[in-house]
Sequence to fold (552 residues):
Amino acid sequence: MSLLREIAHARTGDKGDTCNISLIAFDARDYPRLRAHVSPERVKALFAGVANGDVTRYELPQLGALNFVITGALGGGVTRSLALDAHGKSLSALLLTTEIPDETNRR
Amino acid sequence: MSTRPFRIGCGAGYSGDRIEPAIELVERGELDVIVFECLAERTIAIAQQARAADPSTGYDARLDERIEAVLPEARRRRVRIVTNMGAANPPAAAARVRDIARRLGIGGFTIAVVTGDDVRSLVTSGGFSAGETGEALTEDNVVSANAYLGAEGIREALVNGADIVITGRAADPSLFLAPIAVHHGWRMDDWTMAGRGTLVGHMLECAGQVTGGYFADPGVKDVADLARLGFPLAEVDGDGSAVITKVAGSGGQVTPATCKEQLLYEIHDPAAYVTPDVTADFSGVSITDLGGDRVRVQGADGRARPTTLKVSVGQFDGWIGEGQISYAGAGAVARGRLAGAIVTERLRLTRVPLTELRCDLIGVDALHGPDAGRGADPYEVRLRVTARTGSASDGWRVAREVESLYTNGPAGGGGAFSSVRQVLAMRSTLVPRDRVSWRVDYETL
Fold:
């Protein structure tokens, strides 16, 4: 298994009560693995403790990147949230704790 | 029209940003224009309150500091300045810049002020509601309402020879698109070019976030010299492609990785990034490393701008009472949890009216919830209790319940902290574009 943090990087952005998290392969050859194993359903389950909305995934193959948009993630919005991290700036780190299977035919 | 690359830098990505990197950009960036983006969503609502209390205020609190730092060199090198530091009172900001210039003995330039973003009277005139809550907007429940203006007003100011353009609420990328479009002679309804200029603005608007800020992760993503982080500039060609770079010798880095993170920052559908100027399409953008902190970004496109403008609406939304206290050593987590349970029970017993309550253990579950941090207990934890209340006094009752844990709670609680703040929630609505009119006023010194 590979920890996402070892093969990809991520950044969180906020707009109202919605956050987006980019997931970008360090090496473009790992992009198909990200695409195969980091599904919107999986991200929704991972973020169940912080977000109650939907997860939409956008694909940017030429950048080797995915973009996840998560609604209901910021405690009602940055400006009214009770959360310590009202912007959700730290949420990218949660995504990077995900483990995905190693590729078998590349070494 | 010109075919030489246009050099545009970003001297601030938010109102509290560092000052020296902007000086460095002006002195060594060989810039045509420097932009200061200083207006977060809530900043303008707070500024409206300041203006209501004193009509000569309501502009950016650090305007003096920034303008004094960059104006002399900017005028010497003929670097034009575009900024939203006008916040809730652009004319007062311009008057302040004039006073500073006179005091510094600087003259021979023109300040332009773009107004028209304040649409409070329009959105409270009936028929508008907050998108997030559905609540009708009225005189009584709206603190501020500012439309996101696009590049048009800034463009007109620059075409008419303004050296400093001061706006209130304008879309962040528009601050950059306007000068780029003027320099290269793009029409504002050339949607492809508007999309490309918007991409450049989007890459630059958060300043240090594209040069290695909000990026470092030791061992995985190391960044050199973050204490001297350089702010970005773009060299924009006539076809809208651009090289993102920074001043040689400054800290940080511009790499494909930093640029990809910023490209997707605060983006939802990459094919539909909606601004007042264009529906930009970043889905086909490519990023090419040129080496030496130079990265080419190209391939953005655009479609027609929306017929409505987004309005940022400030509304009071109750109060938040907060208390914190720390525990350490063996059993710290259990004592922190006991402390949270005691406070929760006390708030119930004493009937403090709350609409929302959170007990977090900082160091355990405050950021990502109870499932994320499972593992060995940390040596120390900090309980943070927050509650939403209808009044300041009820907020203080929450905060004091945490402080009273000193003598009434678990063993070894220390470092209590209390605060109560009024919530100024930002909501949004849409208004027809033709109901909003901007204007530009000029003053030559």
About this structure: The longest strand of chain B covers residues 308-328. The CA atoms of residues 325 and 416 of chain B lie 4 Å apart. Chain B has two domains: 6-306, 316-428.
